[in-house]
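Structure first, sequence second, as always.
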C-alpha cells in the first residue's frame, strides 16, 4: 500500500472561507439538504453543496496521471466508487477510448444528470455492497466518498473495494493532522461522517485488509 497523490493539486486550487461556511447559513440545515444527495447538493447554492457541479475538464489531469501510473491499457476495466456525475469516467474514456468503465453512486440525481456518454455505465448503489463479482476490475478508485460513511461501515466498504479489484486500487479521503485542519474540516464539510487522522485511517485499512493505494486531502 502506497501513498499516491492524484487529487491534492485540484483540492489545493480551491479557495475556501471556512468561517463564512458556518456563519452565513445554518450549518445543520445545509447538512440536512446536502445529505439528500439531490439538487441542493449538486446544483443548488454553494452553501448546501457544490454550487453547480458542471463539467469543466479539471479531472482530465487526474485521469491522465492514473492511466500513466497504473499503466492502463485498452480493455482494462475501471470502477469508480462514488462516481457522482461521471466526470472522471468520461475523461478516462476520452483519453483511453477502449477502456471499460463502471461507476456507482448513492445519488439517483447524480446518475440522472451525469455526462450523457457515461450515464448507462452508472449504477445507484452503496459502497458497502458493490454489485460486482470478485476480481472484476483492473483499477478500483474512490475519491472523497468513503469518509461520508459512518465509522461502523468503513471496514465493510474497504473490504468490498479489495474484493472486486484484481489489480490496483486507490482511495482518497478527507483527514486532518492538527487541530487547525480538524476545525477547518468540521467547518467546511457537509456530508462527512468519519473524522479521522491518518493513523486512524491506517487502522481502517489494516483492519479491512485493504492493500491498495491511498491519499489524504487536508483543509489547511
Amino acid at each position: 500500500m502506497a501513498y499516491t497523490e492524484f487529487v491534492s493539486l485540484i483540492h489545493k486550487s480551491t479557495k475556501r472561507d471556512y468561517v463564512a461556511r458556518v456563519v452565513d447559513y445554518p450549518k445543520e440545515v445545509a447538512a440536512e439538504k446536502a445529505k439528500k444527495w439531490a439538487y441542493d447538493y449538486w446544483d443548488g447554492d454553494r452553501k448546501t453543496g457544490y454550487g453547480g457541479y458542471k463539467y469543466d475538464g479539471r479531472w482530465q489531469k487526474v485521469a491522465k496521471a492514473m492511466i500513466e501510473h497504473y499503466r492502463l491499457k485498452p480493455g482494462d476495466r475501471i470502477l469508480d466508487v462514488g462516481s457522482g456525475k461521471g466526470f472522471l469516467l468520461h475523461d478516462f474514456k476520452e483519453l483511453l477510448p477502449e477502456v471499460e468503465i463502471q461507476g456507482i453512486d448513492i445519488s439517483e440525481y447524480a446518475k440522472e444528470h451525469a455526462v450523457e456518454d457515461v450515464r448507462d455505465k452508472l449504477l445507484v448503489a452503496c459502497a458497502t455492497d458493490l454489485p460486482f463479482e470478485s476480481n472484476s476490475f483492473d483499477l478500483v478508485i474512490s475519491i472523497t466518498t468513503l469518509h461520508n460513511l459512518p465509522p461502523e461501515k468503513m471496514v465493510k466498504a474497504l473490504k468490498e473495494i479489495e474484493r472486486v479489484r484484481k489489480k490496483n486500487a486507490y482511495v482518497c479521503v478527507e483527514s486532518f493532522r492538527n487541530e487547525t485542519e480538524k476545525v477547518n474540516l468540521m467547518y467546511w464539510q457537509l456530508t462527512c461522517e468519519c473524522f479521522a487522522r491518518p493513523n486512524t485511517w491506517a487502522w481502517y485499512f489494516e483492519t479491512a485488509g485493504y492493500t491498495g493505494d491511498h491519499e489524504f486531502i487536508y483543509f489547511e
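Margin note: The beta strands are 77-81, 100-105, 122-124, 137-143, 165-174, 213-217.
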